[in-house]
Write a structure and sequence with these properties.
The protein is an all-alpha fold and about 425 residues long. Helix content is about 75%, strand content about 0%. Residues about 25-35 have low confidence and may be disordered.
Length: about 425
């Protein structure tokens, strides 16, 4: 065998090592084994929503500044919004069991122009899902690292994105199973943090209520009712990244196990309960433990955990475990961008809004071209923002609310027309 013949064989071997062997299309059980049951779907698709509690509540709380007393209303409205959006997307799952999410909803119910706007917003949303999740994971890890090492954060973020590209080209189910234990550790540590943190402050509930009353009166004197409302809405809007992962389930129905509608709705319920509890609980803890809105070089969650565990034996170890699990779950959350972003690209390619190559499957039965595109785009925007979550989250919130608004308006219009 000459050198020219050896080179393609070497390339083929490297591809199999990185991405795995081709799928056997004649295996009748293939698609059943590749599909996700509700628990795995909650991990693979719901992790995006749950992991957003690592940066969504923080950005909202930071916007309140010295008016932290408004965090009470923010926690309640955040949890309520999660359930409202989840209920809306449960209806989307019922009416569009083939999947497609916001793009399909807007195209079917509002027309092609609204559909392409929603599709483009979703693509930007999923690119930002990857970049914000990875940047936030880096911020969580580097909260415990000497500032002299912070220059390594962005290169590490890029390396993680490249790793996720390889995992997803191998197959969605394989990547979910690899990362599943991280999700469970995050859920357990945050459950302990929120329940324990609130329970520890129960004896001080009287003084906390009095302090809230003083804060509201002071805010009313300084800002007036209109000013307080505007500040509250500003903080609420900056926390919009908290709600992004809810869209992922309705868009990812094709990879769920039959019956897909029931699996999707159950996954949506799991996501809504876990996200509302975690995001709302963290906002309450910021307030109860008097956490400052911004500490240079540290995330608000890191400051909260260090404050709560300062006088507890083993507190530092628990803090490190919790933050490591948060960083790891953010990486899992970036999965939604690689799972659903290429799927939106494929749907738009079928409608000729994108090149048709984005709808083609690789030998591993993954949308390889779309996965590559999402990876490259997320790295580019991460470099543009220099790895800053605060810079990325504004763009994130805009696209989150745009696609939600179009989907919910389309469903409302459909409901009115159906019952009129």
């Amino acid at each position: 065998m000459n050198q020219l013949d050896e080179q393609p064989e070497l390339t083929s071997r490297l591809r199999r090592i990185l991405f795995g062997p081709p799928r056997d299309l004649h295996d009748r059980s293939l698609f059943h084994r590749m599909s996700l049951i509700p628990i795995l779907a909650w991990i693979g698709l719901g992790a995006d929503g749950l992991s957003s509690s690592a940066y969504g509540p923080e950005e909202a709380f930071r916007a309140l500044g010295e008016h932290s007393y408004l965090a009470v209303g923010l926690a309640g409205l955040t949890a309520f919004t999660v359930f409202i959006i989840a209920a809306g997307y449960s209806r989307v799952i019922e009416h569009f069991p083939q999947g497609g999410g916001g793009y399909v909803v807007a195209t079917s119910l509002l027309g092609a122009r609204a559909g392409v706007v929603s599709g483009c917003a979703l693509l930007v949303d999923y690119v930002l899902t990857i970049s914000v999740s990875i940047a936030s994971a880096g911020a969580a890890l580097f909260s415990f690292v000497d500032p002299a090492w912070h220059s390594l954060k962005v290169p590490l973020d890029i390396a993680v994105i490249i790793t996720l590209v390889v995992l997803n080209i191998r197959g969605v189910r394989e990547s979910v199973l690899t990362l599943a234990p991280i999700f469970l550790v995050f859920a357990l540590t945050h459950l302990i943090t929120i329940v324990g943190g609130i329970a520890a402050k129960v004896p001080e509930i009287g003084s906390d209520i009095a302090e809230l009353g003083t804060g509201f009166r002071g805010g009313f004197s300084a800002l007036g009712l209109g000013g307080m409302v505007l500040l509250f809405l500003h903080a609420y809007s900056l926390g919009g990244g908290t709600y992004t992962g809810i869209e992922a389930v309705s868009n990812g129905l094709p990879i769920l196990r039959e019956p897909k509608v029931q699996t999707g709705k159950r996954t949506m319920l799991y996501m809504a309960i876990s996200l509302a509890f975690t995001a709302g609980g963290l906002l309450l803890l910021y307030l109860l433990w008097h956490i400052p809105p911004h500490v240079e070089g540290k995330t608000t969650n890191a400051v909260l955990l260090q404050t709560m565990t300062a006088n507890i034996p083993g507190g530092r170890a628990f803090t490190l475990l919790t933050m490591l699990s948060a960083a790891a779950l953010l990486i899992v959350g970036a999965q939604a961008g690689f799972v659903d972003g290429p799927r939106v690209l494929a749907n738009m390619a079928v409608d000729s809004w994108m090149p048709h190559r984005f709808s083609q499957l690789s030998e591993r039965l993954t949308t390889q071209n779309g996965i590559f595109m999402m990876g490259v785009a997320s790295i580019a925007i991460l470099l543009w923002a220099h790895g800053s979550v605060h810079s990325l989250v504004v763009l994130y919130s805009i696209n989150v609310f745009l696609t939600f608004s179009l989907s919910m308006f389309g469903m409302l219009r459909h409901s009115i027309q159906t019952h009129s």
